[in-house]
Amino acid sequence: MSNRKQNSREGLVTAAVAKLREMIIAQPPETQIGSLPDLAKELGVGIVTVQQAARVLEHEGFLKVRRGPRGGYYGARPAAEGLSRAISGFLALHHSAHPEAIDIITLLDCELMAAAARAKDEVLRQKLAALVQSVDDRNTARQRGAFDQSMLDILYLMVDRPLMELLSRVAVHHYAEYPRGPVYMGDDGKQRWKRERKAIISAILDGDPERARFEAQRRRREIMSRLNAQI
Predict the structure, then answer these.
(1) What confidence score (pLDDT) does residue 212 get?
(2) Using CA atoms, how far apart are residues 157 and 79, in angstroms rounded to an integer?
(3) Backbone angles phi, psi at 61, to 5 degrees
(4) Could you tell me which residues come within 8 angstroms of residue 87 by beta carbon, excluding any fewer than 6 positions away?
(5) What is the distance between the alpha carbons of residues 42 and 30, in angstroms, rounded to a whole number?
(6) Of the ranges 33-42, 54-63, 112-121, 185-194, which is most confident?
(7) Helix residue ranges per DSSP H, 26-46
């Protein structure tokens, strides 16, 4: 196949992917968007092109292919968790340094905490208030990790900024198996972690974005200072 024909084929597939994605997003998840022949006719392309486009969207998490009497293509929504794990795997494959992930996590946190302090959803604010009551009972690294994940899950909902959530999730997954051990070590580290979480959540619940950002930045400086000392 000549380069011109190959480029033309790739262009058809790219255009078909874009059109199918628009069709999927315009309808509720799990809606059947059509059979293979129907979609080929609607998009004005061949069946092979639709199949190639469908594979791309299936890999992205936007499409499910079902076979049988009620078979066809059904719309879906990619999950942030799955996307973040895939990107984290890509970073690991290319030997991205774990300190880079910590740098990104703490940098994003500064804006995430400030944005959460502006949120008005009372149900989510109550969930965060209930969560912070358990801070003093979190005495192991596993317990602290579970707390931090629960806190982030609430903050993602409070802020509703998908790109920030995705980047944060990627960095968190990439750091999950950091080989140099926890940043918060010993009794001093445990108490410091508790103070930081209480101060940040207090600022968020008080609706004070600048104080939330200040507390997150102070935490970031402390973490990066200790991390650089380990390297």
Answers:
(1) 96
(2) 14
(3) 95, 10
(4) 170
(5) 20
(6) 112-121
(7) 36-43
Mean pLDDT of 93-107: 68
Instruction: Fill in the amino acid letter for 207.
Output: G
Distance CA 202, CA 211 (A): 9
In the chain, DSSP assigns E strands to 32-34, 63-66, 72-75
- pTM (two decimals): 0.61
Helix intervals (H) in 137-185:
141-159, 162-175
CB-based contact 138:194 (threshold 8 Å): yes
What's CA 109's distance to the chain center, in Å? Answer: 13
Structure tokens at 61: 């998490």
Q: Which of 98, 94, 103 is nearest to 178 (CA)?
A: 98
Cα distance between residue 33 and residue 30, in whole Å: 9
Q: What single letter denotes the amino acid at residue 218?
A: R
67 DSSP assignment = -
Q: Which domains are present in the chain?
A: 3-75 (1.10.10.10), 80-230 (1.20.120.530)
Structure tokens at 100: 């880079």
